[in-house]
Amino acid sequence: MSVFKKIYAADKQPDGYRETIDKGMNAVRHISRQVSYGVGSKEEQIERLKKELETADAVVIGAGAGMSTSAGFTYSGERFQKYFYDFAERFHIRDMYSGGFYPFPDEETRWAWWARHIYYNRYINAPKPVYQKLLTLVKDKDYFVITTNVDHQFQRAGFDKKRLFYTQGDYGLFQSVNPDIRETIDNEEWVMKAMEAQGFVRDETGIFQIPKEGKLSMSIPTELIPKCPVDGSEVVMNLRADDSFLEDDGWHKASAAYSDFLRRHENLHVLYLELGVGANTPVIVKYPFWQMTMGNDKAVYACLNYGEAFCPGEIKERAICIDGDIGEVLNSIQ
Prior knowledge:
The protein contains twelve helices and 14 strands. With about 325 residues, it is an alpha/beta fold. It has two domains: about 5-70 and about 130-170 and about 245-330, TPP-binding domain (Rossmann fold), CATH 3.40.50.1220; about 75-125 and about 190-225, no CATH class. The strands form four sheets. A six-stranded parallel β-sheet has the order 5-4-3-11-12-14, sandwiched between helices. A four-stranded antiparallel β-sheet has the order 1-7-6-10. The protein has a two-stranded antiparallel ribbon with strand order 2-13. Strand 6 and strand 7 (about 185) form a beta hairpin. The chain starts with a strand and ends with a helix.
């Protein structure tokens, strides 16, 4: 199979990504400033969520960074110190997120960093089975997932890939800096070679670990610096950072599938389940979910978020807002 995913002619398919953002933004302009934090106690709202998961005709899951954080994919602290201790010591980098923007002295060092970053946030399972627990709750439902996460954990947990839309890219893909090349490049083989080149060794389960002597290289050989196979140009991560982000064939198909799913269920009993969406990307999930709930009297909006569970007053009677760790809340639903 080719490592390339060819770009699709976007004008031939609906674009659920931009359609819902436009609707959400229009709705937000007209909602009141009334804010609700849910009706009833936390326990009562968890019971309501359980009932909605059982009775809804469809579940639309919108997941943000808080979902992966709950699953143990933290970018700082013990996990960062374990796998990036040498980068932290030499460059005084404090977490994985800021390290992605660090001006490393050369490409060999920069790509050594990115190999680790990609591997430990894309090619292994999250430390806690939060995604797997969610799957047990929705696997028998008609569901669809839209997420701003780029760590591929929904698919790794067993979610149907035809029901997933990764809006902001994928750690598992590169794209060329040449805008004329409208293809993304699978990076798994490169990542594995780059990890080995730094001295990581596989354990009995096949996961790369730090060697017993603790010695790692902070650079990769020059010949391992990734290049575009089409023209030899430089590559970058396929992550939405600016207008250069490449929306490839798979991205457009997923966006169209999202649009189609919403259209087919727009007048049914739909549970819009928002998980860990913060203030950085409300236009992609939060605002559209509010708008779709307001536009359908049968719909219910549920927000699980640590410290940020709220909704507009207009939908408070059809909203569930649970402040707490997502994994703990899901585990409390039997």
